[in-house]
Amino acid sequence: MSEGKFKFIEAIASAHREGLIVNENSLILGLGVNYENGADGTTKGLAAEFGKRLMDVPVSEAAFTGMAVGMGNSGLNPVVHHGRVEFALLAMDQILTQAAKWNFMFGGDYPCSLGIRLNIGRQWGNGPQHTSSYSSLFLNTPGLNIFWPSRPSEAYYYTKRLHTLKNPTISMEHRYLFGTSDSREVKTTAKKIQTACSYGSGEKVTVLTYGDGLIEALRIRNHIPDLDIKIICLTSFINDRKIDFQLVDEIDRSEQIIVIDTANYNYGLLQGTIGQIAQNIDVSKKLKIFSPPFAPCATAPSLVKDYYPRAPEIVDYLISLKLTKDPMKDYSFDELHLPANYDFSDDNPSKIFESELN
Amino acid sequence: MSVDIVDKIKMMVVIRTVEEKIAAAFFDQKIFSFLHIMAGQEASAVGCLYDLSHSDLTLGNHRSHGHYLAKGGNLDGLVYEIFGDIRGCCKGFGGSMHMLDRKVGFMGTTPILGSVAPLSVGYAYSLRQRSGTNVAVCFVGDGAAEEGVFSESVNLAGNKGCPLIFVIEDNGYAVNSTNFHRKSPDYNHQDHFKGLGAQYIRVNGQHVWEVSDAMQRAKGFALKGKPVVLHIDVLRRHGHSGPMKENTTSDYRLDFDTLEHRKNNDCVALACDYAELELGHSNDWLKELVETTSSKITEKMDTLIGGINVRG
Prior knowledge:
The complex is a heterodimer.
Chain A: E1 5-7, H1 8-22, E2 26-30, H2 46-50, E3 54-55, H3 61-73, E4 77-82, H4 85-88, H5 92-105, E5 115-120, H6 135-139, E6 145-147, H7 152-161, E7 169-174, E8 181-183, E9 193-199, E10 205-210, H8 213-223, E11 230-234, E12 236-237, H9 245-253, E13 256-260, H10 269-278, E14 287-290, H11 301-304, H12 311-320, H13 333-337, E15 351-355
Parallel strand pairs in A: 2-3, 2-4, 4-5, 5-7, 6-7, 10-11, 10-13, 13-14
Antiparallel strand pairs in A: 1-8, 6-12, 9-11, 9-15
Chain B: H1 5-27, H2 42-49, E1 57-60, H3 65-70, H4 75-82, E2 106-109, H5 116-130, E3 136-141, H6 148-159, E4 164-170, E5 173-174, E6 177-178, H7 179-182, H8 189-195, E7 199-204, H9 208-223, E8 228-233, H10 259-264, H11 267-279, H12 283-306
Parallel strand pairs in B: 1-2, 1-3, 3-4, 4-8, 7-8
Antiparallel strand pairs in B: 5-6
């Protein structure tokens, strides 16, 4: 990796390192986080520097997550890593019923300073039980803040904040993005907390997405530069989840809305977002959804190839609307089934949306 | 056993009186909160917590009014919270199952069974970072001790050397199901928890002096980083939820567990017997002590309850 760039996993490791220095009461715990290349490389080298503050734990998700909740309630700022969202389901009592409600149920002034990193699986081999994000479970729970980085610079930005938290916060990380690279120069200028960012300013087509959907959106935008497709990428869901009115205005001004959701759409993250938007403006006639079928993700390549939304099929849709004539080459086997190696360095956001984090 | 058993008798009477007043108010439809009464098993709460300092931490479950009071929790805050008054210890957000008084090291209670165990490991870990002389104590019932996360937490506490005492208050029933209904025929607490690396101590929970001694021993192990499972057999007067009036033998109770049996093994009476036989206090003096304490708290409770109006 060249000097000015870092990969997603390096961005996380780098943010952890700085976070551990900034807050000496913070620590990282999870299965194998103290390995030399721990947590899939996202805690690489940290145990050598920080010793026991990188805490390996028994294979007991409910117990070690609960221990972290207790630490977060009593003056420490733990950051828990779960290698898949599905593994964290074993700890849902502690995340949803204890951490998220702790401050509320005791009448306030008793916050839980807890960060939780949840990895979402994709690409070959992951299959039905390693690919879910269960977004609605977290988004629909008051008391939790959710970070959802879509590129390495955002992973750095959000991960560092996990070390100085006031309230329980989950960072959702797509393993599909772990190999992507970005400029080390942090793109966000948000003084509060970044909630979304947009790329481009055209008003013909707006793509609404989040997480690993951003890659597809950028590929389309970069394929048809003349159209100046506007991308709105949601990157955090905080406080009461109320949608930014500026964002609704951006959507309102667009002639066509394309939604790219890499998870099951119905009752999920972006359907919830569209629902909030639809309370303010009518989007029904200009909306097109690209998302997986309402089914789990299979394992065999032949069964997965059409599962996730792909830029070429979305470009075909734009051709059908006569917005472009230039089809995009369909993805190769490797592009379909291996982790992305996209370089975000040249994709500069045009606007940052931000909000005060409670 | 030190002479402080007199203070412990008084605290047991305080808890008994408070619990029975709350139970009575429940039938008057004055309580707007789930209610789990611990009357009958006061010796467990008092024996475990009365001697601890405010720097020792305690976490409890849905049945923790007595734990809160035994640790020194503020009575007004408890009563207001249970009666749904926003002057309560959780400003009305929690209710009966959420007791909190951090000034005395009572760090909170949570009713999801077994949940408090891993939370307590976290508190004990934090405690160990800043103090080498304090312990954390958490309470679960015999049913919650069957949760997987409870066993996981015992292992985790041992793995991290946390100064933590897991107290199992065992009344023999999870709601109305006996151990016989819920456990494998060869289930063995001692083998299980010792196998997880904990020190296992079992004690008669009707004898407050024995519970106190057991807690002292437990504290010694915990401060050396060896978690303790302190298994306390208790006799509870009321049923699981709500102050069920169990004046006669209820269907779910085992044959030996009659009203008479519970009366003959009442922890307050047994502590008075102990104070008379072992420490030479006169029977009349002890009787007077119990009655005076009870009437003082009754008066206090009447005043508090009289000042509450959540319908207004």
